[in-house]
Amino acid sequence: MIVILKNHPDEAQLENLITWLTDQDIQVHPTVGASQTILGLVGDTSKIDMDLIAALDIVEDVKRVQEPYKNANRKFHPDDTVIKIGDTQVGGGNLTLIAGPCSVESEEQIVEIARAVKKSGATMLRGGAFKPRSSPYAFQGMHIEGIRLLLKAKEATGLPIVTEIMDGSQLPLFEDVDVLQVGARNMQNYALLRAVGTTDKPVLLKRGLSATYEDLLMSAEYIMAGGNNKVILCERGIRTFETFTRNTLDISCVPVLRQLTHLPIIIDPSHASGKANLVPPLAQAAVAAGADGLLIEVHNDPAHAKCDGPQSITPKAFDTLAKRLRNIKAACEAAE
Amino acid sequence: MIVILKNHPDEAQLENLITWLTDQDIQVHPTVGASQTILGLVGDTSKIDMDLIAALDIVEDVKRVQEPYKNANRKFHPDDTVIKIGDTQVGGGNLTLIAGPCSVESEEQIVEIARAVKKSGATMLRGGAFKPRSSPYAFQGMHIEGIRLLLKAKEATGLPIVTEIMDGSQLPLFEDVDVLQVGARNMQNYALLRAVGTTDKPVLLKRGLSATYEDLLMSAEYIMAGGNNKVILCERGIRTFETFTRNTLDISCVPVLRQLTHLPIIIDPSHASGKANLVPPLAQAAVAAGADGLLIEVHNDPAHAKCDGPQSITPKAFDTLAKRLRNIKAACEAAE
Amino acid sequence: MIVILKNHPDEAQLENLITWLTDQDIQVHPTVGASQTILGLVGDTSKIDMDLIAALDIVEDVKRVQEPYKNANRKFHPDDTVIKIGDTQVGGGNLTLIAGPCSVESEEQIVEIARAVKKSGATMLRGGAFKPRSSPYAFQGMHIEGIRLLLKAKEATGLPIVTEIMDGSQLPLFEDVDVLQVGARNMQNYALLRAVGTTDKPVLLKRGLSATYEDLLMSAEYIMAGGNNKVILCERGIRTFETFTRNTLDISCVPVLRQLTHLPIIIDPSHASGKANLVPPLAQAAVAAGADGLLIEVHNDPAHAKCDGPQSITPKAFDTLAKRLRNIKAACEAAE
Amino acid sequence: MIVILKNHPDEAQLENLITWLTDQDIQVHPTVGASQTILGLVGDTSKIDMDLIAALDIVEDVKRVQEPYKNANRKFHPDDTVIKIGDTQVGGGNLTLIAGPCSVESEEQIVEIARAVKKSGATMLRGGAFKPRSSPYAFQGMHIEGIRLLLKAKEATGLPIVTEIMDGSQLPLFEDVDVLQVGARNMQNYALLRAVGTTDKPVLLKRGLSATYEDLLMSAEYIMAGGNNKVILCERGIRTFETFTRNTLDISCVPVLRQLTHLPIIIDPSHASGKANLVPPLAQAAVAAGADGLLIEVHNDPAHAKCDGPQSITPKAFDTLAKRLRNIKAACEAAE
After folding, report:
1. pTM of the model as a whole
2. What is the CATH number of the domain that holds D43?
3. Under a CB-based contact definition with an 8 Å cutoff, are residues C114 and C156 in contact?
4. Which of A80, B102, B304, B315 is most deeply buried (CB count within 10 A of its CB)?
5. Could you give the ipTM of this predicted complex?
6. A65 to chain D: which residues are within 8 Å by CB?
7. CA neighbor of B286 nearest in space, from B247, B329, B316, B245
8. CB contacts, 8 Å: A56 with chain B
9. Is D244 close to B213, i.e. CB distance below 8 A?
């Protein structure tokens, strides 16, 4: 941590600050310039409250040098996290394809889609049972019945299931669910993060619309602080000034997060774009950038989907896409 | 609602769409141009799912003309909502001043600050008991003990208290709290919005970092859909590319929301800027723009505050500011 | 164009508006609802000033249905534009690789880099002679001498050259330059756009930091309105709240612009990320998303580059990358 | 400047870096921690190229401590800049009111508006002669004839005139213009900044849509580097995700820029909001936040203005507003 002092700081206050820091086992190295004094702090600064120092009269600015996350930090955990789910693995060079409808609508629908996407190479099934909708008047999902139907589809295909949990009180209903999804709107719902952190189920954590990489990793840290290290990060578009697409897919997150963390990173091109015809090129870009997998909305009748129809692709389009994704992955690896 | 068709739409599909719409009591008025056909939909289009129409092959785009919120909409509720809380009122021309520390830290601290801000004209006391912190390792508040101390301060001063609720399961602990605050990170935590919507307590709803005006009003709508109409909207800065200030105060929200909704609008300059020296000018701007009130962090010892010290002002600075705010309000009214 | 009227519009004013529109050969189709009247305008609305209508007392909002650009619009020009430059072509399925240093620094430097990148498959050479730098005190390029050295490198390798023009008055100096680059900061410098629009040289137009797709296409339209249709669009990152990367690469622009326009689209991963280690994954993503080419900074000694060293890759890294890009392109095409 | 080294940096490279820095009269103070080494650089670091250091293999990050602007920096020029223009002064506690139409349209129009706004207390007249329009097909202003008419209005009222210059080659036409305006789209058109920097005319520099405070001050620095210190900064809204208003007025810029620079700061609420009914509350907020003045679009017939009608207010509305602004300013000063 670096503390930049104001010009001509009060001597007594400076003395106090240095004593307070050294009492906490922090070594202080001052750099005195003509117009600026800088303090370099050495030691375990994660215990030191930046805001507290920044509030002092004699301090102009405080800059952090170390990342504030530990469990999620690749520096302390250099090896990739690989998460085993049923017969499949997320991370470690596997291409995870999670496909399925926005909402579960009927047994027939979900089983049919599950069978189709499995045949095309999907490794997990997604489907919403509890749906966060921006309007209180819109369809909110089939709730526990939706989970029951997902389990039917799992039974029929063997695909592990991923579905969204919206509140800690719902945990008992998710007992048989393979992966708990935390939605973008709940990325900083700390009560929920703590709740899923007490389980031993993998958590698919979606990046919030305006969350920085550090915000996302701090939310992962909340889950991991509870003892659950099975966190899968998911980029699903950020909010920018460009409104032609629903959100802006931040493809750079793949190589950046790869460097900052050991957790797997998957991309959701369906929510990122909001438009079915953009899903294939964005999915291709994600694989070429090195993503560990994709979360793709597939619906057998997009025009009559109960939610997010415009961003769902058909099982046939998914089949073509899945083939191409495998080719691209092979091309990237061949060239190494 | 307006539906823009693709060029040369399939006749049969168009017929289907029109029949489907008229079956739902929607009148369809086509405007046929040389290169474009537009359908104007008339009737209660709030029941119609935009996304569903947008997913059709023959549709290029759908644009909403009516706002998707009803209870919060000034068009349907032209009179300002005025919310009575203890002896004070929010909205309807009153200047609400909510002041207090970021976190409750001790009985002495909260009572002393409460007495000071009351003397300067504060109409409510704020203080965090449950604190949402971006790091799981940072101080998370005194929890139920914090609420107990806030109630002591209320007893000592008569000021109603405002404090943040983070999860529906905490509701029983908030029985004696006057105003429930929903934080920016939870603005789209729909489980929490529904929970506070079942109470009859006023809710101070903070705008999310990247929430549009419509998003904010839809979240208010969630609370109101449960029967609780006592919603106070609070702008506390949005996330933009400018990082010199912690967030960017969107001052335009005051006149815009005034026009779109009948709910009171208050401004939190402390979180918007993150810096104590910016609080007074931003608070002044808020009053001059017509805000119903302010939420201001005041701490008797900012340099030793347990959180958000840099953005807290002293009781003395608050006293000077409160006087100036009343002067500005008078100047705005005199000129009318 | 759609005009949404306020409730209970003044009859006389409405009459005036309709007469004024029909006088301009616009047909007006009203859709009268209980709470809203909408006018659908049919005809060549590109002549109608939206702002003028929006300013009327009786009008609540005006929405455009047709895009405001014509020459750049794929609707009116369905075939891909292919631009011939020397022996190479941009667009139409070719993979254009433009490589070279941020700044031209010496004959030795530029010729050496040109030879290396040509060997690796580059199809054009880039290099800055006039450099827009955010500080007036930073190195601003070698000016005309820089162009002279670029021409030497062209002579040595046969690679066409691309370099930035900052002001219309510089045009005579660019007589032998193959492609004129207009920088992101000048994307809406209309005097410059008009100037390059009078030439017959291809123009590489970079997207501004906060330019929407429509803004970018309107700037292309400025150039094309002068008679120069050889415009190459270049995405180089947009400004968002995420500051870990210098900018945020908007990869969705590739499929979106492909749909909106017939002009070729290339990606500059060097400026988008600002970091050399992010250039390869972003370049790969761009090819997988369907981009027509890449603009990549290559420097033989990045640590001593006179500008933008951190984002330059070495000739060796470029060689590896170019191979992988060709593999990915083949993989995408094979799967079709 | 602070250099954060990677773990276990190569000794020889580190030695080289330190020698290179000390050769440039920079003192290097290392702070060696268990997991991190930091170098504090002391001396005139404005000569040191941050990017060059950041490109080194052994360097993880470089952070600037000193601002990169000098002439515009309050640290080196503590007194407010006050700019005399005709009989009026900008800065130093004056309330500058610049009013007038978006475009000059006729002698009658501009003289009538000039007379009206002068009577209401305007201190300068604005009006566009050369208009930057996003469409090449829209009205681009009356050009030199527009300037001639502005001079007529100046003759009639004595008000100094402000009008936009779009290219350095236009300078001779602006000989009698009092204040040169550089538009937001040209904020980083360095050729233009250099050109106006060679004159002795005051320059009203508008903040670009996505320019940080530092970007804006660096553009001012370009002008001042040429010897022209008469720069007036103007905030006119930034681009964010919120599209209800045309742009988002960043009101915090007033107190922030006041602290960073000695240059006067004015606010343009017309372009910031794009809507006439938002202009008064935003103008009031600007004065309450401490702005040195306002730039307001006033048109005698907004519904028939040739551009930007929806954001223009009438002379009558301007008169009411101007009175209220003076009251607010007095209220702010009284309370001190």
Report:
1. 0.94
2. 3.30.70.1140
3. yes
4. B102
5. 0.93
6. 4, 36, 38, 61
7. B329
8. 303
9. yes
